[in-house]
Amino acid sequence: MCGWCAVGVVCKMLTMSRAEISDDDRADVGAFIEKFWQGRAVMSRGKKFFPHEEEGFLDRRDGEIVGLLTYHAGEDGMEILTLNSTIAGAGIGTALILSAIEKARELGCARTWLTTTNDRLRAIGFYQRVGFRMVAINLGVVDKARKSKPEIPEAGERGVPIHDEIVMELTIKPYLDSEK
């Protein structure tokens, strides 16, 4: 029992762990991506990525993935490719995105960005709460992406038609005591 649990209740948080994705995790990550992203590929800004082959962070509870963030880091910064949590309101998504921001800072990235679709209003609000800003709307890009990935649904949250991609960005500032 931990300090957060009611008397006599075994804390499920004790079996939860966050880690960077390792080669041993790739099969589980691939299955998780397939379940939540209609296949193992995701589209961003007209490019196809395979998140299970990229870097990232995952949370497991009792051995099962309950949260996953994948990213691609390059010369222009870090792009967050996927973020999913299977337990709403547990702070998993926030912890994962904060881990990614810290990793971007360690890698010397000046910015991190992500794309989401126009139907994902809750996600857009979440990203704004952790500091991301909308920097572009790519009109019709999801319609074009369906040619490469026909599994992309026509409608999303609350039946909203999915057509556009919203680019959100966070400027990464070094710590004041950083030597970089």
Summarize the structure in short.
This protein is of the alpha+beta class and about 180 residues long.
Commentary on this structure:
The protein is α+β, with helices and mostly antiparallel strands and 180 residues long. The chain contains four helices and nine strands; from the N terminus they run βαβββββαβαβαβ. The strands form two sheets. A seven-stranded mixed beta sheet has the order 1-4-5-6-7-9-8, sandwiched between helices. It is globular. The model is unreliable at 1-14 (pLDDT under 50).
The CATH top-level class label: Alpha Beta
Helix content: 10-25%
Largest sheet entry: 7 strands, mixed
Radius of gyration: 17 Å
Distance between the termini: 42 Å
Structural class: alpha+beta
Model regions low in confidence, pLDDT < 50 over at least 5 residues: 1-14
Q: What is the multimeric organization of the chains shown?
A: single chain
Annotation field: number of helices: 4
CATH superfamily: Gcn5-related N-acetyltransferase (GNAT)
Morphology: globular
Average pLDDT works out at: 87
Strand content: 25-35%
Side by side, the strands of the main sheet go 1-4-5-6-7-9-8
Which sequence of SSEs, written as H and E, runs from N to C?
EHEEEEEHEHEHE
Q: Care to count the β-strands? A: 9
The number of domains is 1
> CATH architecture, please?
3-Layer(aba) Sandwich
